[in-house]
Design a protein that fits this description.
Layout lengths: L1 H36 L6 H19 L2 H9 L1 H6 L5 H16 L4 H24 L2 H20 L9 H7 L5 H23 L15 H15 L6 E5 L5 E5 L2 E6 L6 H19 L16 H15 L3 H14 L1 H4 L4 H8 L16 H16 L8 H13 L15 H4 L7 H20 L3 H6 L4 H10 L9 H9 L6 H11 L6
Parallel strand pairs: 1-3
Antiparallel strand pairs: 2-3
Helix pairs in contact: 1-2, 1-3, 2-6, 6-7, 10-11, 11-12, 12-19, 13-15, 16-17, 16-19, 19-23
C-alpha cells in the first residue's frame, strides 16, 4: 500500500508540474490570439519579447530533469494500467512529448518564438504591399532555424521528418510522398475532365453582402452546429484560425469580404469544426497534455468534415438556404437553391488554397509540400521561391499568380511556423474526413436526412463519442483503425468526390 501511495504521489507530482506548463502555454496562446485580432500594430515588438519569454519558461519547465525522473519512476505503474486509461495515456503522451522537447534547448525555442512573432508582422506588412523582398530575410532565417531544429533529432530518414513529426506524429516523407502521388494520379484526370466542361455560375456569391449581416448569419449557423458561445467566441482576423485556452474557452476567427459571400461563411464553419473537436474533449482532460487534438491531420479532418461534407452538402442548404435568402433577399431572392448549391461547389483552376474547391484543394497542398521539402533539402533557395511557386502553379493547375501576395506570400504558415511539416495535415485531414464521415453514415444512415432538417445532433454525438472525447489519447493511426476498422486510404475521399461531382459533371 505504501508503494502504491508513493506511486500515486509521484503521478500527482507529474500531473501538477504538467498543469503549470499547460497554463503557461495557454497564456502564450492568448497573446497569439490577441496579436492576430485586436493588438495595436506598434505592440508587435513587445509581443514578440513576451511570447519568447513565455516559450522559454514553459520549455524549461517541461524539460526539467525532474519530469524525466518522474516518467521513469512511473514506467512500471503505466504498464500495470489499461492502455487507454487516463493515467496510462497521460504518462505515455507526456513521455513522448518530453523525449522530443528535451532534445531542443530552451534558448533555441525562445529564439524561434521571437523570430516567428517578428516574421508574422513582417509578412502581414509585406503581403499587403506585395513585397516579397521585404520578408525574404525573415524566411531565410526561418529556413535556417527549421534545419537547426531537425538537427536536434539525428538519425532521421529525411530532414523534414522531425518537422512533420511535430504536428503529425508518426508521419514521414517516405509515407507521404507516395500518398500524395497516388492522390494526384486520381485527381488530375478528374480536374481536367471537370474544367473542360462549362463552369458553374457563382456570380450570385459576388454581390454586396454587408459584414454585420454575414457575421450574424454565420453565428447562427455555427451555433446550430453545436458551437457553444458560453464556451467560445468568434472574431475577425487576416487569416482565420481556431485557438483554445481551456476546454471551456475555445475561440474561432473568420474574415469577411462584403463582395464574396462564401468566405466568412465557410471559414466560420471550418473553424467551428476545429472548435467542436476541442469542446468535445473529456472534461477530465482539462489542463492536461491529453486535451486538444491528436495531430494536424485529425484536427483538419474535423474542420473539413463540417465545412465540406456537411456545410457544402445539398441537404444542409435545403435547410439553411431559405434563411440565408431571408437575410439577403435582394441579393438571393431570385437565386434557386440548386443554383446556389452549384455556385458554392464550383470547381476551377484557382490561385488561392483557402478559396480552392474540394477537387483541386489537395493539388494546392501538394505544391506547398514539395516546395518546402525542396527548401529544407537545400535544392531550392528562398530567393527562388516565387519563381518556383509560379512554375508549379502553371504546371499543376494551369494558372500563374499575378503577384507574390497571391503566390509565395499567400499563406501565413512559413512566416509564423517552420519550413517543413506545415502543410501535409491539410491533405491528411481531407482523406480522414471522408473516411470518418463514410463510417458515421454507415453506422447512422439517418445522418443525411437529419442534416437536411437542420439537426446535427446524431452526427455531433457520434463524433464526440468516437473522436472528440479521446483528445490526444490515441495516435492518428490508432484512432483511424479504431473508428473505421481500416488504415488510412484515399478510397473514401475519391468515392465522395466522384459521387458528389458526378451530379454536375461527366467524370
Amino acid at each position: 500500500m505504501q508503494t502504491l501511495d508513493k506511486t500515486q504521489a509521484k503521478f500527482a507530482q507529474l500531473a501538477a508540474h504538467l498543469r503549470e506548463v499547460t497554463d503557461i502555454e495557454s497564456a502564450s496562446s492568448l497573446l497569439h490570439w490577441d496579436q492576430s485580432t485586436y493588438m495595436p500594430a506598434k505592440g508587435a515588438t513587445a509581443r514578440g519579447r513576451q511570447l519568447a519569454t513565455l516559450k522559454q519558461i514553459s520549455h524549461e519547465k517541461f524539460t526539467d530533469p525532474k519530469i524525466g525522473e518522474l516518467l521513469e519512476d512511473l514506467r512500471f505503474y503505466e504498464q500495470t494500467l489499461p492502455y487507454d486509461s487516463t493515467a496510462a495515456s497521460l504518462i505515455r503522451i507526456a513521455r513522448r512529448d518530453y523525449d522530443r522537447a528535451a532534445r531542443v534547448p530552451a534558448t533555441f525555442m525562445s529564439a524561434l518564438c521571437r523570430h516567428q512573432a517578428d516574421s508574422y508582422e513582417a509578412w502581414a506588412t509585406a503581403r499587403a504591399a506585395n513585397n516579397f523582398a521585404a520578408v525574404e530575410p525573415y524566411l531565410e532565417k526561418t529556413l535556417e532555424l527549421s534545419r537547426q531544429y531537425a538537427d536536434f533529432f539525428p538519425g532521421y530518414e529525411h530532414i523534414a521528418d522531425p518537422l512533420i513529426d511535430r504536428s503529425d506524429y508518426g508521419m514521414k516523407v517516405s509515407l507521404l510522398r507516395p500518398l500524395f502521388a497516388q492522390l494526384r494520379q486520381e485527381l488530375v484526370p478528374i480536374v481536367e475532365a471537370i474544367t473542360s466542361q462549362p463552369p458553374a455560375d457563382d456570380s450570385c456569391l459576388h454581390q454586396d453582402f454587408p459584414e454585420s449581416q454575414q457575421l450574424e448569419f454565420t453565428r447562427k449557423v455555427v451555433e446550430r452546429m453545436g458551437f457553444d458561445f458560453q464556451r467560445g467566441r468568434q472574431d475577425t482576423t487576416l487569416h482565420p484560425f481556431m485557438t483554445n485556452f481551456s476546454i471551456d474557452d475555445v475561440r474561432i476567427t473568420t474574415r469577411v469580404y462584403e463582395d464574396h459571400l462564401d468566405q466568412a461563411l465557410f471559414s466560420s464553419i471550418h473553424e467551428a469544426g476545429h472548435a467542436l473537436y476541442e469542446l468535445g474533449n473529456s472534461p477530465e482532460f482539462e489542463g492536461t497534455l491529453l486535451a486538444g487534438g491528436i495531430s494536424s491531420g485529425v484536427h483538419e479532418s474535423q474542420s473539413r468534415l463540417w465545412e465540406n461534407m456537411v456545410g457544402r452538402s445539398r441537404g444542409f442548404w435545403e435547410c439553411f438556404y431559405p434563411q440565408l435568402q431571408g437575410v439577403f433577399l435582394r441579393q438571393l431572392g431570385h437565386v434557386s437553391t440548386d443554383a446556389f448549391y452549384r455556385a458554392i461547389n464550383k470547381v476551377s483552376r484557382s490561385l488561392i488554397r483557402t478559396d480552392a474547391d474540394e477537387v483541386t484543394y489537395n493539388l494546392h497542398v501538394a505544391i506547398r509540400f514539395d516546395l518546402e521539402l525542396a527548401m529544407v533539402e537545400g535544392k531550392l533557395a528562398v530567393r527562388d521561391l516565387p519563381e518556383a511557386w509560379n512554375e508549379r502553379y502553371k504546371t499543376d493547375l494551369g494558372v500563374v499568380p499575378a503577384t507574390d501576395s497571391e503566390g509565395a506570400m499567400q499563406d501565413v504558415h512559413w512566416y509564423v511556423g517552420t519550413i517543413g511539416g506545415m502543410f501535409q495535415g491539410y491533405t491528411l485531414g481531407n482523406l480522414m474526413s471522408a473516411q470518418f464521415y463514410e463510417t458515421a453514415v454507415k453506422n447512422n444512415p439517418e445522418i443525411p436526412v437529419e442534416i437536411e432538417r437542420g439537426n446535427f445532433t446524431v452526427l455531433h454525438d457520434w463524433l464526440k463519442q468516437n473522436i472528440y472525447q479521446h483528445g490526444r489519447k490515441y495516435t492518428a493511426v490508432e484512432l483511424i483503425d479504431r473508428v473505421t476498422g481500416s488504415p488510412l486510404t484515399i478510397d473514401p475521399f475519391i468515392r465522395y468526390i466522384r459521387h458528389k461531382y458526378g451530379e454536375f459533371y461527366v467524370i
